[in-house]
């Protein structure tokens, strides 16, 4: 297919030329009624193109989606305007009936837990592998998936995250082969992997590896606008009609032309220039790593340690500075003009994309040098002292917690509930998702028994300056638990 064209961009351009009196949505009528201060800030064309359904648009979307399927190596692609979140929900709704078992890495994003609640599928959580030195989740291994399928041959699908927030992709081709041996689909949350297909030095994309349904946040690593994502289908283990029907349940009926157009041009950009653009990003990432390796109290890892790493994701271990990732994040942002994607208790994660200039990368390296120099000879910060004292200085908790669901997430979500003090909720069954954000991996899921360790871990994250969300009480003083008499 000719990947140089962009049908939605053409549609938008043609539409700008149309001169008529608008009696359709949205209410600001091509920007005429928009707040003037907002218009001054943003510019007019954005509002003139802020449109939902229009004559001719469905046809343009269909061609744009076909081009995307062709570019990403899929049999069919859907554009998503509610993020990968709605794609994950649709993947489960399309493959599981209420009560069906699904094998699911417990390192999944909270959207997968929402999908379990919506679909009524029952999770069999898979343990993920963990590297203690790097404090790094390595995802679901082939042997874990194989054993789980032997123990649960009735499972209707398997779901894994690849790449994860740290860029670890795992043995995705083997996972596909194992699932296909049993004729069940492998569903992949590749929210962080929309770029992988476009450079030979990046790990194989889940679509190219043969996964059946793959969701990608185009907005995270490619140039889509925020919330713009794609869902790709391959093979015939999952029916396309079922996916379309599921998407209609979870997507807006007023998809934004701006978001859709951003998906179309992001596809064109990758298909036409991806190799060159990503080649530059890979070179910058390699240079940044080499500089960080020279700093005595900072560290990072590369593909020698983690062969399936996406090198454009840069994790810097900061704990030898005597501070937490949260403290380091605040210093970088407030004093050194650099903003990371995600702090953890021991690390800072930086997302490098082709949007980053060499000046950005130099600024990052300079800031890390200054941070490292400023911390030399300093005593341990309060945050890290607290975290160490509480015994939860690592992500290890997440991989070793082995949560035991008592009832399904859906049953818990709809159960009669008591509200109890969070600190005292030990041994009760949660009705809520409790989740440090980012990375959005729940510490406590609906249906699981709340453990003392889980409570302490969440409190340690909060104390260290992290954000915890998902709870119906934003202060997290209290939590909803299944009522004793329900
Ligand atoms: C692994 C993973 N999956 C899914 C999502 C949700 O993606 P979106 O923000 O596009 O809805 C995220 C968001 O951070 C994520 O990290």
Summarize the structure.
The protein has 17 helices and 17 strands. The chain is an alpha/beta fold and 486 residues long. Helix 5 packs parallel to helix 6 (110-119) and helix 11 packs across helix 13 (358-375).
| Overall mean pLDDT | 93
Instruction: Work out the number of β strands.
Output: 17
- Rg over CA atoms, rounded to whole Å, is 23 Å
Strand content: 5-15%
Just give the CATH class of the largest domain: Alpha Beta
The helicity comes to 25-40%
The separation of the N and C termini measures 57 Å
Structural class: alpha/beta
Envelope shape = globular
Question: Helix count?
Answer: 17
Write up this protein.
By secondary structure, the protein is α/β, with parallel strands linked by helices. It has 3 domains: 7-271, Type I PLP-dependent aspartate aminotransferase-like (Major domain) (Aspartate Aminotransferase, domain 2), CATH 3.40.640; 274-387, Aspartate Aminotransferase, domain 1; 401-482, Ornithine Decarboxylase, Chain A, domain 4. 40% of the residues lie in helices and 14% in strands. It has 17 helices and 17 strands. Strands 1-9-8-7-6-2-3 form a 7-stranded mixed beta sheet, with helices on both faces. The protein has a 4-stranded antiparallel beta sheet with strand order 10-11-13-12. Strands 4-5 form a two-stranded antiparallel sheet. Strand 4 and strand 5 form a beta hairpin. The longest helix is centred in the middle third of the chain and has 37 residues, at 257-293. The N and C termini lie far apart (57 Å). The model has no long low-confidence stretch (mean pLDDT 93). Pyridoxal-5'-phosphate (PLP) binds next to helix 5.
